[in-house]
Every structure is written in structure tokens, then in C-alpha cells.
Amino acid sequence: MMKNALFGGVNAAVLTAMTDALAVDCDRTARHCKWLLANGCNGLGVLGTTGEANSLGIGERLSLMEGLTERGVPARAMLPGTGTTALSDTVLLTKRAEELGCRGVLLLPPFYYKHPSEDGLFAYFSEVIQRVGGSIALYLYHFPQQSAVPIGLALVERLLRAYPGKVKGVKDSSGDFANTKAYVDHFAHEGFEVYCGDDGALHALLQEGGAGCITASANVGSAVSARVLRNWDRQAGADAQVTLAAVRRAVTSEALIPGLKALLARHTGEAAWRNVRPPHLPLAAEAEARLFAAFDACGVKLAPAA
């Protein structure tokens, strides 16, 4: 396991609570963030895919970052997603994250125009780095199934050489462990932090020298992830990984974001957790029942809600 990683350990890809009017609910989201930090999470990946960031406007994203810090969520624990298709918006969000006290941000590539060249991606990230300045760390977000814009080893190499110490790591949500391991093999010796987006890979990644995870399942499985982390070099870690993989399979057995929100609604007793922005839709009752049965079969007992 990589030591002294800035966001090393278990990071939840935090759900964003919504009101019945589908506005961002900072109060409920902040309570959930604090619960996560008290139940196994080392950090909080807010405004990511699971947080429906690309269904939120720039003003809403700013308001959520500000609202969480105002409600006592430690900015040092937050790794906000600030990558957008617009260079100026990415710079704006990233600068504000640093002003609030965040130590790093997670950057999607510009994903609207498909099949950009490596030179084009390098130019985009170079502009972000130069315009943002400051000391905030940048983490790349490799999720080609959603973005259709992969972040290859050659691009990472160029960025590390051009901007030493600025690009600190990557979240790999490809689900391809060979790719995740390649990031480690090529760059971890330089302090480059590699995080998996697939809970099923956490134990294996830690053994290879990775830094940890940034995962959706941690919204309900963070305590199990923490057991894997604590015991990464012992049999207890391998045993906990079996449960963690089961949690991952359960929460991905139905639509992921509505399903996780349904689980939180059940856990907290707050029906508003089911609110989700279109094009996502709440789970039908039959799908909820299947999800709950699959999750309960994992044997995971959640700590009382905040």
C-alpha cells in the first residue's frame, strides 16, 4: 500500500441529496458526509459521477462545496470533481475549491468532443494547470465508459514531466485492473497516487502499491472498505474483501445511483433521499425490494444514521 498519499485510504464517491423540488440539499448531504467520515471514510469525493455532478449547474456545484464547508464538513477531506467540458468552468471550480481549503480536485477530461488527440488533451490540462496556479493537487479521472475519453499512460507521462508535483494521481473507474495496475507500475514510484473506482479491486490494488479507492459503494459499505484497508497485508483483509465485493455486486445489481439513494432512504428513514435528477429515475418498488434483499444478504449492518 502506498504510504503518505494525500487522499490515501477509503474515499466515498458521495451521493448528492436533493429536495422534492430537485434542488441540491446541502443539509442532508452534509449529514451524510459526516456519517461517512465517522464510519470508515478517510476522504469524500463530492461532485463526482455518483454525486450527479454533470446534472448540476456550475452555480449549484459552487453552492454545494460552499454549503458543505459552512456546515462543518472539513474541506481537507473533500476531493471535489471540478472537471467540465468548458475550460473556464473547470478553472473557476478548481480555484474555488482551493479557496475553501480543499487539498485536491478530481478532473474529468473534456468529454463532449469525442476522440480528441493526445496533444489536445495535453493542451486542455496544461491550460487548466497554468490558469489555476496555486498549490491544489490535480487528480485525473479515467472513466472511458462514461466520458468516452480515456486517459492513457502516455498522456500521464507528459503531464508528470511538464508539471512535476502538480498532477498527483488518478481515479481509474474503467474496471480494468490491468489498466489500474499499469498506472501503479509506471508511476507509483514517483508518488503518483492510484485509486480504484471498483471496490472489488481494493485489496489487490493495495497489495500492488496503490493508494486506495474512490467508490460509490462506500456510501453504504465504507466500514467494510476500512477493514480491507486496515488489514491489507493480512488474511483479515482478504476476508473483508470478499464481503466488500459482495456489497459491490449488490449495489450494482440495479441502477446504481437511484439504488444507493434508496438504501440511504431506508437507513435514515428520510424518503427524500430517493430524489434523483432526470434522466435518472427512482427505483420501482420491485427493483428496490430486489436491491434490499441483495444488500441484506451481504450481512453488512450500517451504523446509526447521523
Task: Provide a compact summary of the structure.
The chain is α/β, with parallel strands linked by helices and 306 residues long.
Under the CATH scheme, which architecture would be assigned?
Alpha-Beta Barrel
Largest sheet: 7 strands, parallel
Tell me, briefly, the overall form. globular
**For the terminal residues, how far apart are their CA atoms?**
31 Å
- Stretches with pLDDT under 50, minimum 5 residues: none
Give the fraction of residues assigned to helices.
40-55%
- Kindly report the spatial arrangement of strands forming the biggest sheet: 2-1-7-6-5-4-3
How many helices in DSSP terms? Answer: 12
Order of helices and strands: EHEHHEHEHHEHEHEHHHH
CATH superfamily, by name, is: Aldolase class I
Percent range for β-strand residues: 5-15%
- Integer tally of domains: 1
Protein described:
The chain is α/β, with parallel strands linked by helices. The chain has one domain (9-224): Aldolase class I (TIM Barrel), CATH 3.20.20.70. Helices cover 46% and strands 10% of the residues. It has 12 helices and 7 strands. It has helices spanning 26-38, 58-70, 87-100, 118-132, 144-147, 153-162, 177-187, 202-208, 218-230, 235-251, 256-268, 285-296; strands at 9-13, 43-45, 104-107, 137-142, 167-172, 193-196, 212-215. The protein has a 7-stranded parallel sheet with strand order 2-1-7-6-5-4-3. Helix 7 links the parallel strand 5 (167-172) and strand 6 (193-196). Helix 1 crosses helix 2 (58-70), helix 9 (218-230) runs antiparallel to helix 10 and helix 10 runs antiparallel to helix 12 (285-296).
